[in-house]
């Protein structure tokens, strides 16, 4: 089977498993721009990338109506570029990044749409390396960043656990979403679920799923 037919059949297969209204972000990290072009030609528009250099390059190769989601760890010195090419940032978890994103977005006359990343780990050790704010810090975080004029907080994002039942994690994310909506009623998006756990994430209200390997193959 050629690459186009292979991607087309996997894309159809996944789409048939999505709940109505759930947005599919195809995570194209590590795959060539030619694969993104195939997806685009098949009518797909939403793409996810984890690295600035890669996302920036691919976004320049694709037509302007492609929608780009940055979902990787944020390095402050990459923010200027990320704000240039991304339509959504899924991985906001730091106040200083929020202020910088807002400033950069305002300079471009844009509002940068951001998801607040919430850490869904069962046990948060003090020096936890995993990304995301602690769920219980959500209100405090929103209090500090909620008024930034260049930011539009659209919802919460989380990454499910490896090798564990994902249900408690996505329940936590759904709870964080409800609490966020108490503060910002429009911020109702939930970005949760990857190839291995998106069905569970949808049970807990995910509005956006981020799938790579189930559509493009193993990396
Ligand atoms: C890589 C990645 C995905 C996609 O993972 P797959 O298992 O390939 O579907 C989704 N979200 C984030 C944050 C990622 O880093």
Features of this protein?
219 residues; alpha/beta; 8-stranded parallel beta sheet; 9 helices; 40% helix; globular; binds pyridoxal-5'-phosphate
Rg, rounded, reads 17 Å
Main beta sheet strand tally, sense and closure: 8 strands, parallel
**Helix and strand succession?**
HEHEHEHEHEHEHEHEH
Give, in spatial order, the strands making up the sheet with the most strands. 7-6-5-4-3-2-1-8
Helix content: 25-40%
The structure class reads alpha/beta
Bound small molecules, by name, code or SMILES, are: pyridoxal-5'-phosphate
Number of strands: 8
How large a portion of the residues is in β-strands, by DSSP E?
Answer: 15-25%
**Which descriptor suits the 3D outline?**
globular
Task: Describe the protein in words.
The chain is an alpha/beta fold and 219 residues long. Helices cover 40% and strands 18% of the residues. It is built from 9 helices and 8 strands. Strand 5, helix 6 (138-145) and strand 6 (151-158) form a beta-alpha-beta unit. The longest helix has 17 residues, at 167-183. The radius of gyration is 17 Å and the shape is globular. The two termini are 19 Å apart. The mean pLDDT is 96. The structure holds pyridoxal-5'-phosphate. Pyridoxal-5'-phosphate binds next to strand 8 and helix 9. The site of pyridoxal-5'-phosphate has 13 residues, from strand 8 and helix 9.
Describe the protein's topology.
Blueprint: H1 3-15, E1 23-27, H2 33-41, E2 46-49, H3 52-61, E3 67-70, H4 79-85, E4 88-92, H5 95-107, E5 112-117, H6 138-145, E6 151-158, H7 167-183, E7 189-192, H8 198-203, E8 208-211, H9 213-216
Parallel strand pairs: 1-2, 1-8, 2-3, 3-4, 4-5, 5-6, 6-7
